[in-house]
Amino acid sequence: MEAAIGAARGLVGRVVNLLSNDLVQAYVASAELGLNSEKTKDDLMRTQVVLREAQRRGVINNPSLEELLHKLHTKVGKAEDALDELQYIIIQDQLDGTQYAVPDLGNTLWGHARHIRHAIHHAIGNFILPCFSCWLLQDDDHGAAAINHPHNTSNPASGNDGSVTKLSFDRVAMSKKIKQAIEEMHSLCDQFLELLKIIPDHSNSTTTVNLKRPLTGSITAQDKLYGREDLFEQTIKDLITNCTDSNKALSVMPIIGPGGIGKTTFTQHLYKDKRTREHYPARAWICVSTDFDVLKLSQQILSQIEENNDAYQTSSLNQLQNSIEKGLKSKRFLIVFDDIWECTTQDWETLLAPMGKGETTGNMVLVTTRFPSKVDDVKTTDPILLKGLELDDFLTFFEALIFEGQIPHNLKELAKDIAKKLKGSPLAAKTVGRLLKNDLSKKHWMAVLKDNRWQKQKNNDDIMPSLKISYDYLPFQLKKCFSCFSLFPEDHRFSNLEITCFWSALGIIEKDENYMEELLKNGFLVKENDRWSNQQYYVLHDLLHELARSVSSQECLNIYSNGSFRADDVPKSIRHFSITMKDKYVETFRTEMTKLKSKVDIPNLRALMIFRKYEEQIDEIIEDTFKEIEALRVLFIEVMSPESLPHYFPKLIHLRYLKISPSEFGSEVTFPSTLSRFYHLQLLDLSDWYDQSVKLPNDINRLTNLCHFIAEREVHSNVPEVGKMKYLKELKEFHVKKESVGFELSELGDLTELGGELSIYNIGNVATKEEAMKAKLVSKGDLETLRLVWGGLDASEPSDALDGTPELSDVLDGLEPHPNLQSLGIENHGGSVEGVSWAILPPFGQLLHLRSLKLINISSLVQIKPGVVGVTAKSFTQLKEIVLDSLSEFTQWDEAPNAHSFSMLEKIVCKECPNLYKLPFLQDCSMGSYNHLWKLEITGCPKLLMPLMPHTSTLTDVTVDTRRTGRMVYVNHNLYLTRYNRALAWHNMAGKVESITFKAGSTVPWIILQSLTSFKKLVIEGDSSKQSLASLSYLTSLTNLRIQDCKNFKVGGFNLLMASNLKDLAVHNIIEYYPRFVAADLLSELAVEITRSKKLLPPTAGALLQLVRLNVDSISAVLVAPVCRLLAATLKELVITCDREVENLTKDEEKALQLLTSLQELSFWRCHRLRSFPQGLHGLPSLRKLQAITCRRIRSLPKKGIPTSLRELSINDCSRKLHNQAKKLNQRNLSVSA
């Protein structure tokens, strides 16, 4: 009932807003209608007050009110549609200069004649066509071209050249429709007033009943904690070790998660753990729930810490606080506040006041809550976020609940399917467990899965009532917002813009209202970051999608499974419809959808959202079902192409939100002219049409109410006369075109609400400062990123237009942005920037909000220093990113004296500045002034003076590349040095660098590597120096070593036995004319060392070397008995790379190979002289993979066959005979690739 009352309130409010429009108001008050618009507004506002009062009173189960609400909803909805159509024609009049919706025709001869003509048109229309207020006519006062009637079955796509023209206006039908709707509303308003007089007031009891919470104590009914063992142990450690080490008197640790996730159970186990009990002599468990009463809570605390003291019975808060302070003075204590719903900051501080006064430190308060907003109010440590159990853990818990052991084999797959639907919620498992436990038949379990019976359980200890209590706690407006989530697929990622515009389109909120953060604070949403784009999005907390479906079932219908959709179960009040079915077409779907047409008021649906992939049969049914639809505000649709849009598409003149997606991609798409006729449209989403050439109607600028146009940059750049779309909030790209009308820079002038990013190309086509000023960039305060480009998309040189002339600086001067700008880029500017009079850049130093500065290909920029381009001591204090690219004359950047300009800097990119020698943010960082800097890229700047790199410990992504010093790359804890001949700031990488690669003879001394405790991998490539490997013996942390194409290395002194942690060793020369002695010498040295130390080594000597993978270029060096015996226990993969000596294995080598009993993979790569595989392969018991690549002399597999353990045989670029033999193998469980 509350939802129905609230929906009616919202609808009445929207009609009031429509009547507040001056032109609509004048039309309603015109002679034709004879209505008093002010009285109508007053009556409606009075009805709103009545509805608000009914809502406040908590009216429940009142059939008379319910029936009246349904009538009101229908009548007010019709009035809203009629007034919306009128407003549509008013907008069309404004666009075309026509007078169809002029309020009063007056008594002139022209007025009478026109009125007669409208009456004739109306009579003809009634005789020929069904009445539709706004319908299409051949005739037009201003000679408009003819177009199809919206009921016509012709295709809605009519090209994009403007051939589909505007709607004409049946004035008589409109007048009658509005008059009838408003008069019917008048009578209903009076009935509401009379009914309210006899409705009782339930407001005092509603909240208490709905929000009654179960009491909890410290003793849990669940003896074992499932799936959270690691988190539990870490929390115990935090409670005991970390808090003991802390000097804080009191810490507060919140445990947060949605209802039913197991917060209380987790905390009960913490509370009762032996380690916790021993560490905290004083403990108290307080169940708070919805009643945060400081006096009562203080009484409960005192009663538990002083069990034999009756002082807790006092009603004096002062006495209670003194007693608590005294009782806890010398004891370390743990207090749990379970299930907090609401508390003010003042109440919380009052409650905790006596607890921080004692002599002990490391005291702890645990708080459990389902509300993130409460966490921020109370926390002093990072909160613990409880999520659903992983599937395996959940199944184990499930088994314990139902069987107290294993699930029977015939029910295992069903149990998995049920578990997946429950999203890891322990309380959901208990709810479903009760349903399943008493009937273990497969039929019963399938019914529970199919019908979602667990969602219908009503007991307080079931999952849906537990979740719904959070919903009941919300204000009504948030309830309406939350219920709309049911229309989207599960796990849908919501952007703030998407859902806010969706709510606005349905009239739930005003345009500028934002309830996403409120739902986040109340625990209904989770905010996450996309790992690729780094953009924020929201997702619903696990089972809350099912809750949204439940609470919105009277208004929202989401068909998500053919099997569960029954038209007979659908309420007639449904207003919003979505389809997210994933299964294929079945005939029952056609039957149910046919029934749906007589069950639901299809023409007056407000939202239709289709998320399924295109399937011809399904889409034919959907189009047939909704062919009468007219009142849509929201449409999400997927089509094969714009030409396949449904036939009802042109009628949707009420649309506010339109998202069209492709089911398949083509090279070029053309949208129909109909798209330009949706004058009410506020958001148009074509973002899914990427990697395609998208052609819009030429008159797309008629969408004058459009606020958000979500599409690729190229689509934005092709909108002519975009200045007509004055409410537009985003335009990613604009190209100034000399030859094309509608692409002058002045088009940007009226777009005062532009925000986000804007790139302007071809500024060379702007001739004067006055022309540039018409863009009015200085007035666009919401713009965050501005990119000014002289030239087109592919231009790498300054534009030829006005190159080097004074006018070029004047144009830049006219493009002054708003001081709030956060990111600025200037590219290909060929003139001076020092004579420009901006309040910011140039002189850009005065842009105090600047976050990003990009200067690209500006040939005249010589220096940046105090007094030049506006630089002062306050400049660049907010700057996070600097890009200097292709500045051929730029020499230096000087900082103002005593300035701390770059303290927020995060990214520095400096490329191709051949004369640059000085940058202030590349000076000594010992004073710690660059604490946020993480990325540095310097290439093609040979004169630039630089400190040792990385010059600050915060850097995690560094590229330095000059011809003089070589190349250094440090990224993701990996260091790559190519011919690098400078010293490095190793102290800034201490404890961080994990991998180092030396290429082409970098001069870093290896001895320094011993100090790197985190160092695990070393790669040396292409080093022709006479280095000695002896110093590598002491790198005991090394797990991975690769030496490649190093022809002069000395092996003497390098003892592999000392590298006890080495798991992966590769030593080979790929270059043909390089010698092969490095690997041979290394392994020979190993064999000698084994023999020499044999008497000293214990029987388990193999444990001294833990090699798992070995890659060498010498068969004869590795297949030696002492070496293989040492590697036998651990070696799993052996790769022979580029052995150019061995043709066939000797008997000793065959015997040595047999010692490798743990070997699982054996590969030969580019062994050009090798004629056969080892003949004893069949004797390797663990071998699973055999591979030969570019070994063209091997003609056949071993005569004695391959081991039965082999699972993969890969032959690539070998002899045809070997390929054919491999393909013919018929061995079970063997995968052959040849």
TrEMBL record:
Gene3D superfamilies: Helical domain of apoptotic protease-activating factors, P-loop containing nucleotide triphosphate hydrolases, Ribonuclease Inhibitor, Winged helix-like DNA-binding domain superfamily/Winged helix DNA-binding domain. Signal peptide: none annotated. Residues 745-866 form the R13L1/DRL21-like LRR repeat region domain. Residues 487-548 form the Disease resistance protein winged helix domain. One of its GO terms (molecular function) is ADP binding. InterPro entries: Apaf_helical (IPR042197), LRR_dom_sf (IPR032675), LRR_R13L1-DRL21 (IPR056789), NB-ARC (IPR002182), P-loop_NTPase (IPR027417), WH-like_DNA-bd_sf (IPR036388), WHD_DRP (IPR058922). GO terms for biological process: defense response. The keyword Repeat applies. The keyword Repeat applies. Keywords: Leucine-rich repeat, Plant defense, Repeat. Residues 235-405 form the NB-ARC domain. This is NB-ARC domain-containing protein.
